[in-house]
Specification:
The structure is a single chain. The protein has 471 residues and is an alpha+beta fold. 28% of the residues lie in helices and 28% in strands. The strands form 4 sheets. Strands 3, 4, 5, 6, 11, 12, 13, 14 and 15 form a 9-stranded mixed sheet that branches.
Length: 471
């Protein structure tokens, strides 16, 4: 069973009207009740469209409810990473999308009494190579119009080679945010169906969406699952699935004054959070490719040891991990799953910066469905010339996938471990051999990030069917 995040554990659900089954005809069906899906549904509901949201688990079950919930336009070394593959105009479009996402969230939280903490965002470096990366991030961010500044000294209990600071960013409890979005969407007629995993999307005018809780029909479908659960469009071959870890510690006083993120390795993410008994410190990092042959429990232990070395008075309260996807061309996507047709739209590929990007994607998708245009949305295009810059990375990713398929099958056949604990170890997505994740007690596929619980049902990723029972 997956570890529970701080947010998922402590936040009670409001009395949202959850439909018992998936049925009916709608203007739009939204797949996924994370930040992208609920924001898209709300925007369309406000515009008078009939909308149903279909969620495989419960609201906030996956990435959003397990994030660090930093809402920032300064994102580690993301801007300089994008600039290596794209022009300055594209970087500026990306920054404008982040600003729009942050501003929308700021306004929504203000009007719906969702608690928000205003913090500076700080990207910092451990060593010399990190400092070079940081200097480049400063240059690109300033060129894109962000009012970032350089600082030599940081109030941290370990040495750093300087930092880039952006004032007046935000942090929230993501489950409080999703709860407010759910209530507001419902007030505009949006229907929410939980435990309705989508297994098939087919046809057009209307599109038929089959779920484990029934079938709905819709003129348009938005797949807001980060990694699309549809194989058409080949998005699984254009992104790398990543898993990262986070721990929460209770501290006597607030020990960090900003949202910090290192730009070099080992990665470390820091922020504070409110707590009835004082203050909480959130420490994240130690990420790796989903399903990689690594000791996942040790990854958490390393974070524990590092935290207690620098804050020995800290007491651990929660430990969890989260999943995200890095696109081959470094840009998120929001648009049609196939070129030339708006019947099915997809969004995802946020590279661990889903708070601003999810809202930006929702704004871009809703504008498209309502006949509007947003200039910066070109950077989020699913089928554009931007994709060309990622062809080399895509080839490398798919070469790694091919190697992993071969290695996995040879290993499983050699040691006769194709079946284990009454389960087939063959991923039901595209046939990879899953590995056991000791930290999360799950089976994880190293190909495209599908994950299954110890009994076989799907947890997340592009797979729509659980591992097969062999007993």
């Amino acid at each position: 069973m997956a570890l529970s995040s701080l947010w998922q554990d402590r936040h009670p659900r409001s009395d949202v009207d959850i439909a018992p089954e998936a049925s009916g005809q709608y203007d739009v069906a939204v797949v996924g009740a994370g930040l992208t899906g609920l924001t898209t549904a709300l925007l369309l509901g406000r515009a008078g469209r009939s909308v149903v949201v279909l969620e495989a688990g419960t609201v906030g079950y996956a990435t959003t409810g397990r994030s660090t919930a930093k809402i920032s336009c300064l994102q580690g070394s993301r801007l300089s990473t994008i600039s290596r593959k794209h022009s300055g105009d594209v970087v500026r479009q990306y920054v404008e999308a982040q600003r729009e996402g942050l501003a929308w969230l700021d306004g929504f939280c203000t009007h719906h009494q969702v608690p928000v903490q205003r913090r500076d965002a700080v990207s910092y470096a451990h060593g010399g190579q990190g400092e070079q990366t940081l200097r480049r991030e400063l240059e690109v961010a300033q060129g894109a119009g962000l009012p970032v500044t350089w600082t030599d000294e940081l109030p941290l209990p370990f040495p750093a080679r300087g930092g880039v600071r952006l004032a007046d960013q935000l942090q929230v409890d993501p489950m409080e945010l999703l709860d407010a979005l759910s209530l507001e969407a419902a007030a505009h007629g949006v229907r929410l169906v939980e435990h309705a995993r989508v297994t098939k999307v087919r046809g057009s005018a209307p599109v038929r969406v089959t779920t484990e809780a029934g079938e709905v029909r819709a003129d348009r479908v938005v797949v807001a699952t980060n990694m699309p659960v549809l194989d058409r469009g080949g998005f699984f071959a254009r992104m790398k699935p990543q898993r990262s870890y986070c721990l929460a510690f209770r501290t006597p006083t607030q020990v960090v004054d900003a949202m910090y993120l290192s730009v070099d390795q080992p990665s470390r993410s820091l922020r504070d959070a409110a707590d009835v008994e004082g203050s909480l410190l959130l420490v994240g990092g130690n990420g790796h490719k989903v399903g990689a042959d690594v000791d996942t429990a040790r990854r958490l232990d390393e974070l524990r040891g590092w935290t207690l070395e620098h804050w020995p008075e800290a007491t651990e309260t929660h430990a969890w991990s989260a999943q995200d996807y890095e696109p081959h061309h470094e840009l998120p996507f929001a648009g049609p799953v196939l070129p030339g047709s708006d019947d099915v739209l997809v969004a995802g590929g946020y590279s661990k910066w889903g708070m601003t990007n999810a809202v930006a994607a929702a704004l871009a998708l809703s504008a498209r469905l309502l006949g509007g245009q947003i200039g910066w949305a070109a950077a989020f295009g699913t089928w554009s010339r931007h994709e060309v810059t990622g062809l080399g990375t895509a080839a490398l990713l798919n070469g790694e996938v091919g190697l992993e398929i071969t290695r996995g099958w040879i290993g499983a056949l050699t040691d006769r471990s194709l079946h284990q604990d009454g389960l087939s170890r063959v991923c039901t997505h595209l046939g990879g051999i899953v590995r056991w994740n000791d930290a999360e007690q799950s089976w994880d596929c190293p190909l495209h990030g599908s994950r299954f619980d110890r009994e076989g049902p799907v947890l997340e990723g592009p797979a729509v069917c659980g591992l097969r029972r062999t007993d």
